[in-house]
Amino acid sequence: MVDGAGRDGAMVDGARRDGADAARADAARATPARATPARATPARADVERADVEKARAGRAQAVDTGRRATLVALGAAGMTTALAATGFARASAASAPDAAPRAHRRAGPRPPAAWFGAELRRIPTTREVVALTFNAAWDEAGIDVVLAELRRRKLPATFFPTGAFARAHPAAVRAMAAAHGLGNHSYSHPYFDDLDTSERQEEVRRADAAIREASGAEPLPFFRFPYSATTDDSIADVNDLGYAVVEFTTDTNGYLGPEGGMTVDRVVRRAVDALAPGAVLQMHVGSNNGDGVVLDARALPRIIDAAQEAGYTITDLRGFLTDAGEADDAPG
User: Fold this and answer.
1) Are the C-beta atoms of 158 and 106 separated by less than 8 Å?
2) pTM higher than 0.90, yes or no?
3) Which of 35, 56, 153, 278 could lock onto 125 through a cystine, CB 3.0 to 4.6 A?
4) What does the pLDDT profile of the chain (332 residues) look like in tens digits?
């Protein structure tokens, strides 16, 4: 599409030069008697201007149509020069991950380019590593137990609080950030397919601001969709802000609680069944029905034991960030 847009531009520029040369040749050959009628017929000039504007509009539409494909191809890292070379730099500057809105410009590490353009449900690695991740959108009933177990074992995890949770429980978010990375789980936990682009990006921005304020830390450039309800358009909207979409290989379903038919044994079984190189486990630190029963917190020691006994290392998603944005095989 880039090459096509370039050819269209060349054709328009060529048409302009050919038209100008032809006009000068006609003027040189014209007699004074014919010159006056030529000046008195603006219709031809109007048509030519209309053709040029039409071609220009077509080029602009081609640029807009190719924006998301270009973002996917270029990824999230250091692509300003490449954009300029393709001719998309001007149209893409405001939306490319490397030129994210001012509130989200990141001078530090960012996800590999390969993590953009689609949701990540398994870390692309052949190593036997598994990532522990926890969503925080309700209460904080299980956070102390989870953090204590991770601290006791000196293991990492990634937490995905919502902005509303960060506002309501700043001490819990600070405790998470003291030893672990913080992702972004939106501000109010809506279905993103019910929102337009500006509303989606506002959810991400508001959550980022709330998490920063509560934690005093730099959030990770990882976003997790509420309800894991992803679409191509919503992923592209989040990518445009510089975030990779990190979903999960399996949810333990501990959040359903006893009322939802879950037990600690079933939570552990779901986690163990999902073990594979690069698996990402999703758990929760709260109870969605307010009963204070957090099965994921109770199951965590057994999940860790089972993973380690199977030869898996608990990995830190922060270890996959890179300054160069190159997609290397993940560290263990």
Assistant:
1) no
2) no
3) 278
4) 334 444 344 443 444 444 444 444 444 444 343 333 344 444 444 545 555 455 554 444 443 444 444 444 444 333 333 333 323 233 333 333 333 333 344 556 899 999 999 999 999 999 999 999 999 999 999 999 999 999 999 999 999 999 999 999 999 999 999 999 999 999 999 999 999 999 999 999 999 999 999 999 999 999 999 999 999 999 999 999 999 999 999 999 999 999 999 999 999 999 999 999 999 999 999 998 889 999 999 999 999 999 999 999 999 999 999 875 444 444 44
Contact 106, 254 (CB under 8 A): no
Residue type (1 letter), 178: A
DSSP summary character for residue 310: T
Print the SS3 string covering the chain.
CHHHHHHHHHHHHHHHHHHHHHHHHHHHHCCHHHHHHHHCCHHHHHHHHHHHHHHHHHHHHHHHHCHHHHHHHHCCCCCHHHHHHHCCHHHHCCCCHHHCCHHHCCCCCECCHHHCCCCECECCCCCCEEEEEEEECCCCCCHHHHHHHHHHHCCCCEEEECHHHHHHCHHHHHHHHHHCEECECCCCCCCHHHCCHHHHHHHHHHHHHHHHHHHCCCCCCEECCHHHCCCHHHHHHHHCCCCEEECCCEECCHHHCHHHCCCHHHHHHHHHHCCCCCEEEEEECCCCCCCCCCHHHHHHHHHHHHHHHCCCEEECHHHHCECCCCCCCCCC
